[in-house]
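thread: overnight batch results

M.L. [08:02]
morning all. the overnight job finished for the chain we discussed friday. pasting input first so we're all looking at the same thing
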Amino acid sequence: MEFFDVATTQRSIRRLKPDPIPETALRQIMDTALCAPSGGNRQGWSFVVIRDASTRARIGEIYRECWGELMRTPYYAGVSEAPSDSREGKMLASARHLSEHLAEAPVLVVACIATDGAKPTLTTGASIYPAIQNLMLAARALGIGSCITTIHRYRDGQLKALLGIPPEVETAAVVPLGSPLGKFGRPPRRPLGEVAFGDRWGQGFE
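M.L. [08:03]
and the structure it wrote out:
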């Protein structure tokens, strides 16, 4: 696919088929992740690629517990009252579907970043999230759906224990991969003029 078609139609696909992903495609996706930039080119990332059904099932159980925690936060408690045909309502329905069917995705990728024992900061993500985006763009180019989720962090200790992830390594995201049940397409976004400024905050970008 042409790059701009990939980048502008790669959206969160939370409804995925259980069909296996070909090994050649999965290897190509993971190899593309490794080509992302990282701070100091240290490449402190690690990826646990989970295909085992029993492990996916246990992660699905943990994730459902996390979903329950998330729904008690003020924002989601408010969104839960949104009409089903509203943008918020559709997003919530999609996210709820993932919480109930995460284990059915044929592949789950847990993206991790080494911290060398230092407390994670905002910039810690600068060395892992570009790799995750590379992964998701590669999946899109191959017609494979994906999304990024971080709510596993409510039960981070359980996930680490399950997968044997060391304490000094942070889990940055869980990315389910699978053939999409939904459609790719440009996601709804705010107009460029509302989020991009020219030279100074609040000044229109032309």
